[in-house]
Amino acid sequence: MSSEIDQLRSYTLAKQEIGALVRSVKQFFQAQEQREKAEQCQEILVHLAEDRFNLTVVGQFKRGKSSLMNAIVGREVLPTGLRPWCVSPSGARHDE
């Protein structure tokens, strides 16, 4: 359990460092009156605060991709079984 906590702390610290860097770059662009680039930095900060990411898993049929994703999220959200279920892109989203 402590390794997961350490990983979460490392992730949080890295995220805070990236946020501080992006804020610095945004301030630079604002000082240079480069509004579009400053707005792009703001969009990055918003995405960073949302704490979302995309994870793509590809492979041959029946190789355990859905099982892997279910294991990552800790519950069965994608179907698994004997016949191929996910023949096209599938997605799962966590809502609080």
Task: Summarize the helices and strands and which ones pair or pack.
Layout: H1 2-31, H2 35-50, H3 65-73
Helix pairs in contact: 1-2
Short précis:
The protein is mainly α and 96 residues long. Helices cover 57% and strands 0% of the residues.
Q: Can you characterise this structure?
A:
This protein starts with a helix and ends in a 23-residue tail after the last helix. Helix 1 (2-31) packs antiparallel against helix 2. The protein is built from three helices and no strands. The protein has helices at residues 2-31, 35-50, 65-73. By secondary structure, it is mostly helical. The protein has two domains: 2-53; 54-96, no CATH class.
Q: How helix-rich are the residues, as a percent range? A: 55-70%
How many separate structural domains?
2
Q: How big a fraction of the residues is strand? A: under 5%
What sequence of helices (H) and strands (E) makes up the elements? HHH
The profile of the biggest β sheet is:
none
Average of per-residue pLDDT values: 83
Uncertain runs are none
Task: List the keywords.
96 residues, 2 domains, 3 helices, mainly alpha
